[in-house]
């Protein structure tokens, strides 16, 4: 017994209390978040260094270029920068975030969270919350270092602005990456959200409202892009002159072109705000709107700003921008209709109203992300006012989407139309295809056909007993063989040229009945039956 005990497999010692097992998967997620932040910083650093090398008159050394790259990376998260080397000596804030530049950190963080959530077969699978927290910790650590480093450059970051802008972007992007990797087990939301929220979103009403609101916002952004593009084409000479007058070297013009490209999403949002009516601010007490533009002589020379409308009251050309919110309202109403007959008109109207609310919230968020200061005093307000843009989007879409959705719902669920000249009561669906009704009507038609063409039939076997179907009474089919005696009656009544041998007295083959469709007696069955082979 002692030998068995000594030679047996030793039991593993119990882990000591207070000792935590380190997870290599969690460490890899932290490193992935830090690498995502480093890739964004490295890309902007390489771009700024290339422009600094190609510039014939650099203002600072490579250290200043790296500080500027760190400032641009923070600006891509929405952080407000402060410029100290101004002509007046007053620090000027720079808070207009190029929305196209935001895509760089968002894609990198989302990719890091998605890779951290997708583990191999032999690797440890971390919970979604652990992956989210680990990636966030690594990214925010690099963000804090970049904020401290950018403070020594020409454009330092506001610490308070960086303290909530960087975590906000990282949280949204990491949540999207975990969501994409873990799938949608219950509706369009991940399992780590509360079950009540997931069950609410699964309802068709909210899914349709989200789709309708997103469709309306996309229509507004597309219309804003059309408005901006038409204005750029209309003021082509001014835009070209502004672009060429900024700098005379190709590296400087390339930098201006890159800046203009990163501001294209901002211009789309501003064009949408212009079409909605509130417009956008171009300084203190200066607003560009379709109803009028007082002018802003103190604006900096920039190609996109050169496409502003002419100062003065509104014209029919500027009023044409109101077509954009009209189309957006129609789109929200169209997407808010469910293809189901059991949905009531009140449900459809409520879905369209919720879609309008979603559209207003999306436009308010985009307006808040695209606006900001470009300096002090007169340039302290630059861009659309977020609450005015959201309220205008809600009002336009709700006023048009609700009646359009109800009208589309009524059109899709209209009753089937009868023949030309039929009354409205005859157009109502009479339930022809309901269970049991079709068999009764076929029996009635068979009885009427037998009355028109007497003494015509086929030999059949007695059908099995089936439950009686409510409806008109049907005469029983004779079991004996019935011979065809009248050929002329068949020809005149049905217009069919039947087989003379069959009509001369040769009996037909028996037809096996079915419980759902009893054998039809009439000229149509005789016409479709193949003649018997010659003896």
Give the helix/strand layout.
Elements (H helix, E strand, L loop, with lengths): L1 H6 L16 H31 L7 H15 L4 E3 L8 E3 L4 H19 L10 H23 L4 E3 L1 H24 L12 H8 L1 H31 L1 H11 L3 H13 L1 H13 L3 E3 L4 E2 L3 E2 L18 E2 L2 H4 L3 H13 L9 H26 L11 E2 L2 H27 L24 H16 L34 H8 L5 H4 L19 H6 L7
Antiparallel strand pairs: 1-2, 1-3, 4-5, 4-8, 6-7
Helix pairs in contact: 2-3, 2-4, 2-5, 3-5, 4-5, 4-6, 5-6, 8-11, 8-13, 8-14, 11-14, 13-14, 13-15, 14-15
Question: Describe it for me?
Answer:
The chain is mainly alpha-helical and 535 residues long. 56% of the residues lie in helices and 4% in strands. Strands 2-1-3 form a three-stranded antiparallel beta sheet.
Largest sheet: 3 strands, antiparallel
Low-confidence stretches: 1-20, 418-430, 454-463, 471-499, 501-529
Q: Strand tally, please?
A: 8
Give the % helix. Answer: 55-70%
The total of helices stands at 19
List the helices and strands in order: HHHEEHHEHHHHHHEEEEHHHEHHHHH
Distance between the termini: 98 Å
- The spatial strand order of the largest sheet comes to 2-1-3
Overall outline: flat
Strand fraction band? under 5%
Name the average pLDDT: 77
Radius of gyration: 38 Å
Determine the structural class based on helices, strands and strand pairing. mainly alpha
């Amino acid at each position: 017994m002692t030998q068995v005990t000594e030679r047996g497999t030793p039991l593993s010692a119990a882990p000591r209390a207070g000792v935590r097992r380190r997870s290599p998967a969690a460490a890899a997620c932290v490193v992935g978040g830090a690498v995502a932040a480093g890739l964004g910083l490295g890309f902007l650093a390489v771009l700024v260094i290339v422009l600094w090398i190609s510039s014939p008159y650099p203002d600072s050394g490579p250290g200043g270029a790296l500080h500027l790259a760190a400032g641009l990376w923070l600006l891509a998260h929405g952080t407000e920068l402060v410029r100290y080397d101004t002509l007046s000596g007053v620090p000027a804030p720079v808070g207009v975030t190029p929305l196209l530049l935001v895509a760089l950190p968002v894609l990198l963080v989302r990719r890091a969270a998605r890779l951290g959530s997708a583990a191999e077969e032999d690797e440890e699978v971390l919970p979604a919350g652990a992956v989210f927290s680990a990636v966030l910790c690594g990214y925010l650590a690099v963000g804090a270092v970049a904020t401290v480093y950018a403070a020594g450059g020409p454009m330092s970051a506001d610490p308070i602005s960086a303290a909530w802008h960087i975590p906000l972007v990282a949280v949204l992007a990491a949540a999207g990456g975990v969501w994409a990797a873990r799938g949608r087990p219950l509706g369009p939301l991940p399992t780590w959200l509360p079950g009540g929220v997931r069950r609410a979103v699964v309802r068709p009403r909210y899914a349709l409202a989200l789709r309708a609101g997103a469709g309306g916002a996309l229509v507004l952004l597309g219309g804003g892009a059309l408005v901006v593009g038409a204005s750029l084409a209309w003021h082509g000479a001014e835009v070209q002159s502004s672009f060429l007058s900024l700098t005379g070297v190709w590296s400087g013009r390339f930098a201006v072109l890159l800046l203009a490209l990163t501001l294209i999403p901002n211009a789309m949002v501003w064009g949408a705000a212009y079409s909605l009516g509130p417009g956008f601010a171009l300084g203190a007490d200066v607003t560009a709107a379709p109803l009028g533009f007082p002018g802003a002589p103190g604006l900096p020379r920039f190609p996109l700003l050169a496409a502003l409308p002419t100062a003065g009251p509104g014209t029919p050309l500027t009023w044409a921008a109101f077509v954009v919110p009209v189309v957006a309202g129609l789109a929200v109403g169209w997407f808010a209709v469910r293809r189901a007959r059991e949905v009531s008109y009140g449900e459809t109207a409520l879905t369209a109203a919720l879609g309008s609310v979603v559209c207003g919230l999306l436009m308010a968020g985009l307006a808040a992300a695209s606006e900001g200061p470009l300096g002090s005093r007169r340039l302290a307000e630059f861009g659309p006012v977020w609450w005015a843009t959201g309220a205008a989007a809600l009002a336009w879409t709700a006023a048009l989407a609700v009646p359009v959705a109800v009208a589309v719902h009524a059109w899709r669920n209209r009753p089937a139309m009868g023949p030309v000249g039929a009354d409205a009561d005859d157009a109502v669906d009479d339930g022809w295809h309901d269970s049991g009704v079709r068999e009764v009507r076929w029996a009635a038609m068979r009885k009427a056909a037998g009355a028109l063409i007497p003494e015509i039939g086929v030999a059949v076997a007695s059908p099995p007993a089936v439950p009686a179907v409510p409806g008109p009474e049907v005469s029983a089919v004779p079991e004996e063989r019935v011979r065809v005696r009248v050929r002329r009656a068949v020809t005149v009544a049905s217009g069919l040229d039947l087989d003379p041998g069959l009509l001369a007295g040769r009996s037909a083959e028996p037809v096996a009945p079915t419980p759902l469709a009893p054998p039809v007696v009439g000229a149509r069955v005789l016409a479709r039956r193949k003649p018997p082979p010659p003896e």
